[in-house]
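Reviewers asked in the last cycle whether our approach scales beyond single polypeptides. To address this, we selected a multi-component target totalling 1548 residues and predicted its structure end to end. The input consisted of the following lines:
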Amino acid sequence: MSQPVLYSELPWPEAERRVREGAPLFLPLGATEQHGRHMALGTDLVLPTAIAVRAARRVGGLVLPGIAYGNRSQPKTGGGPAFPGTINITANTFSLIVRDIICDLHRQKARRIVTVNGHYENVWPTIEGIELALDAIGRDKARDLTILRVDHWDMIRKETLERVFPDGYPGIELEHASVLETSMMLALRPELVDLTQAVHDGPASFLPYDRYPEPPAEVPASGVLSLTEGSAAEKGEWLLKDCEDGIVNIVNREFPSG
Amino acid sequence: MSQPVLYSELPWPEAERRVREGAPLFLPLGATEQHGRHMALGTDLVLPTAIAVRAARRVGGLVLPGIAYGNRSQPKTGGGPAFPGTINITANTFSLIVRDIICDLHRQKARRIVTVNGHYENVWPTIEGIELALDAIGRDKARDLTILRVDHWDMIRKETLERVFPDGYPGIELEHASVLETSMMLALRPELVDLTQAVHDGPASFLPYDRYPEPPAEVPASGVLSLTEGSAAEKGEWLLKDCEDGIVNIVNREFPSG
Amino acid sequence: MSQPVLYSELPWPEAERRVREGAPLFLPLGATEQHGRHMALGTDLVLPTAIAVRAARRVGGLVLPGIAYGNRSQPKTGGGPAFPGTINITANTFSLIVRDIICDLHRQKARRIVTVNGHYENVWPTIEGIELALDAIGRDKARDLTILRVDHWDMIRKETLERVFPDGYPGIELEHASVLETSMMLALRPELVDLTQAVHDGPASFLPYDRYPEPPAEVPASGVLSLTEGSAAEKGEWLLKDCEDGIVNIVNREFPSG
Amino acid sequence: MSQPVLYSELPWPEAERRVREGAPLFLPLGATEQHGRHMALGTDLVLPTAIAVRAARRVGGLVLPGIAYGNRSQPKTGGGPAFPGTINITANTFSLIVRDIICDLHRQKARRIVTVNGHYENVWPTIEGIELALDAIGRDKARDLTILRVDHWDMIRKETLERVFPDGYPGIELEHASVLETSMMLALRPELVDLTQAVHDGPASFLPYDRYPEPPAEVPASGVLSLTEGSAAEKGEWLLKDCEDGIVNIVNREFPSG
Amino acid sequence: MSQPVLYSELPWPEAERRVREGAPLFLPLGATEQHGRHMALGTDLVLPTAIAVRAARRVGGLVLPGIAYGNRSQPKTGGGPAFPGTINITANTFSLIVRDIICDLHRQKARRIVTVNGHYENVWPTIEGIELALDAIGRDKARDLTILRVDHWDMIRKETLERVFPDGYPGIELEHASVLETSMMLALRPELVDLTQAVHDGPASFLPYDRYPEPPAEVPASGVLSLTEGSAAEKGEWLLKDCEDGIVNIVNREFPSG
Amino acid sequence: MSQPVLYSELPWPEAERRVREGAPLFLPLGATEQHGRHMALGTDLVLPTAIAVRAARRVGGLVLPGIAYGNRSQPKTGGGPAFPGTINITANTFSLIVRDIICDLHRQKARRIVTVNGHYENVWPTIEGIELALDAIGRDKARDLTILRVDHWDMIRKETLERVFPDGYPGIELEHASVLETSMMLALRPELVDLTQAVHDGPASFLPYDRYPEPPAEVPASGVLSLTEGSAAEKGEWLLKDCEDGIVNIVNREFPSG
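The resulting structure, written as structure tokens, was:
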């Protein structure tokens, strides 16, 4: 299992061989989005890429270049499209990227694709992109293809959340730029986190509806929806381990001979 | 407040007057989607339309014709696009419908729009449609416009859920065609519910990822994700009352002179 | 023939069975458009829906939820897109709705579709939507599918027009919100017509060209292109009967075992 | 009035000057479509181009390069998209061509545009293209622009029709490749008409609905919907004169200082 | 080889026969773009059309109606989209035109298509249009189709360039409206060239990057990128002969039985 | 000038400040495309990213996340879309990515954008994406924005090419995966180059036209269009220095106070 895992670092004969032999292809889906005053804008791509690399090493997979621009950030899940620093693309463009990549992977006979998503707002345009690809390929011809769609936070086990949040888990919906993401970044790229800059102006309290074009003033000024307090690299490792294990289990289950 | 509330039943001079006077315009967003062996395919439009009508009566609003075709059903939230009876449209088409309607309402000087959604898969393409409308109108010019986006289930109060589920609320994510929707339909349109046909083959237990093109066989054969047992018209009334009150409160808050 | 006819009111097992047994599926295509000072904005959907229901009862068909938003109104046929009360969508969006619905009906093995149109401006984007659906399905695979496209006014017999207009028929092109539509609405939904509000400022006299962006001032202020005088529920029944019979004949001819 | 009229034959300084001085710009819209066994496929562009040239000479206008590919032919108006020889483009593409040309003409300060259409199926996508252009330009900014949309057959006077058809006019809807078009082509380009090849297998008798994907077998094998008998160059001249005069009158009325 | 070559001038039975017998179909791709103070705006369509006609005569081919509106002009290759007189369409629209035409030619069983391009900016959207057509047709079904894409300037032999430019060839990239195009136009349509209007303000000297929205002021005021001096009809004939021979050779090579 | 240069590694307050202060934003445009048997698939993104980083350090700029998927590879410039390992996206999708990013950068008040391209096939859809962004922003409002579009190979000076190719420069058109790219990769990421795998089966000799769907068999089997012989890290440094200097000069010229 010591083979290289980054698709973009292979020459074509090696990529062709690996794809032909059935290597699962991991596609990290991220964003460029504010993650609080204390953490890098690229967090949503750093995390799924790192998780995909770890999983790929264990299952003989390859990690494709990630998508660094995500579907429009929303106030309740990422601060909103107007937050400084965030760069949004439209849902349609995001779906077309996913569609085109899957279509072309299918053309070159890839049959095992795993999208690993790190940005909540990507969930729906990824689904749409996959469906559009299946339409374009033709539902009949697409039968030899399997696409798995994973959001990394769904890999985290309940036991781990209880360890990370001994006082109770505030829920995934407020976890943007908060303890989960901060801890994983501390484990992976501590130089991209500066907890001294963390401002404790959360947790956000959201109204049960959306307003456009001017959203209610409910996103904390820092951009952190919940809390950063209690973030730690060690916790990040627990979480990353869950994500890695979860994906490895899924791949082994779905691609038995992988 | 005894004015008519259905936009489509007004002649144009009346519609023009009401819009000019600031009547909030409610746009019900639904679907044509399986809702178990016991309930009508149109449930997702019946509910938000009925709720919008009740709210409109109290705030002097108008209810626009609803959208009866929803964004592609997903296995975990509605049984999936391949379930018999379900008619799916694409995310892009759904977004364009929302965009076009908002643009044209703005053209005719409507300034207060409330989308009332009854189909989970519509959430994201509705957001996209609103953003596309704001882009098309021009962000500067759109400043005189307010669009509120409401999912009816978010209006239900915690206290009511505790009354409806004395043994604990299984969570909104499994509520498709289950006690909440069934009870509200029993209250509104009992002839569209036949509990003798309800099959208790749930609750669904979902894997923490999606698979395409063939989803895992995890949707109960009935299409009911959770349970129908315990559904009752009386509970439905409690829930509808919450939805109505919730929207009335939002409208009063956001459109003070409404 | 006493089976229910509204698709949206069936539970999925019933819908599936009816589709499998070859029930023709009627798709009403309407609009939300000014129909004079005396008649409801929803007229263009009320009429084809009612006609489709009557025909469906006789041929064992099902009526799908109708499309309430029509392609941009034009001055010469409906008052134009800027008339108060009218809500326009673009031709492209309308075509995509038709395309998506047909594609998904084909996916669930529907083979007999009848669009019943009540808004003149929908004619061309409906044709385009059907062609786009055939392209998307694949012309080879679409051979098992038959789509009939009907404009309800084409079902009216010459003899009936002579009875309705003993002094001569002014022609369908000026019939917007005039005697034909008003009479049918009086027969179907008299509460949505108030002839005391009818203003006799027509008939319209159109220049033989279009002008954009500002159309010539040729639409009567009332929005009625011809006359309402002489409208009567009884005449409406004659007309509706023609529409119903015409569609029943077409269905029996095209779907012999229907 | 002896200035050149073909835009494409001018060098840019001359085109710039003419546009700046307010020359109306005529855009011929045609098709490549079967016109019977006796007439050229390009008829639908030959006619509006010739008419535009004649009108342009009299009003100091310029004729832009014409669009030779038209929106999908339909059985009842041109033989249908599957007729041999016909080359169809989609409604969306046709609309985008019209949109792009108008937007770019507006950019270079053209303010007077006249589309002259020779293909019935182009009517609706031309309207849509104009509306899309106005949306793209911005309705406010588009106020200095006037677009006139003319179908050449609407310019023909009743008196002329009575002269051409002394036994009664069969109606424009069957006139495809019939006496009107054939006569005008005989007047303009007699070498593109060979009446010895005309087959008298019409007139077409159409059912009052459309069927897809296989249209009813109702188009005469020749492709001529009505009759060619009685076609004559002299009649063609009468008709062309009407078209020319009609457009000149419109331009003089709409662009008084033109 | 004395058969007619213009597709639009044939009646449909003749077009059908020629296509069935394998006649190569030439599609000229042009533009409406400034070509200096001395030459017509339509140059980019005149040239490929004339070349296609000459080649078609020798190989029994047919020339389809050309596309007169090209992809956005760029400063370095045609003066830029803002140059007076130029009418630009978008890359997407241009691609869709090419896609639609190819799809429909395939539908009517054309199997040999040759695009002959005269506008540099068309190169890429033509490629995209061809690929989109192949996607729409289906790569499997498209195997019976061959599309050749030719830019006419690539047909010019080195020997001819040396004869035309005895002092050295300045390179194709500056040849817009310069000696090559001017000479060919002098040979074909001398009335569309007025060398007395040629201004010698070139050659252009371009910066090695593009700037938007305001391009650097590097296009000579005349619009001629290089020189017109030395243009001559005789040289034009040499060049046209090369283009004609080049295409004839390609067609004979690729369509041996053509 | 020791500030961090990677946008994705900054927290939002820092990104906001830098953008507000006028830092030029560099957007690397790449591809995932075969680069011979000896070099990594990601070459086309590695190069412009590294060049942008070097330039950004000197001018106080920021480097945005790069685009790793490029417009369809073509045989003559990259081996073609069907070459193993290459992952193509469509021109339209690529343009929309560029459009969306520019629009959103403009929204957050970025006024200085520099695209740095490393994949020839991206040139045209990048131009289109920029133009679409300017259309979407509005040409008036876009006046405060400057976008520079650079292809890195245009930064290489003639003197350097003469040093790299003492026997004569074969021309940029064959340089795919050849000496220039290989040398720069040897300088930057030697572990992604394995010259022992280089196969000398070039240079490619291309026919002067394209053929679809099956291109002529003219791409060398290795995918290298020219030669790799003579590649050296030292030469790569010369080339990178040119690219860096070239961009620094452009930025200093265009953004004087940068």
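DSSP finds eight helices and seven strands in chain B. We regard this as preliminary and will revisit it once experimental data from Aim 1 are available.
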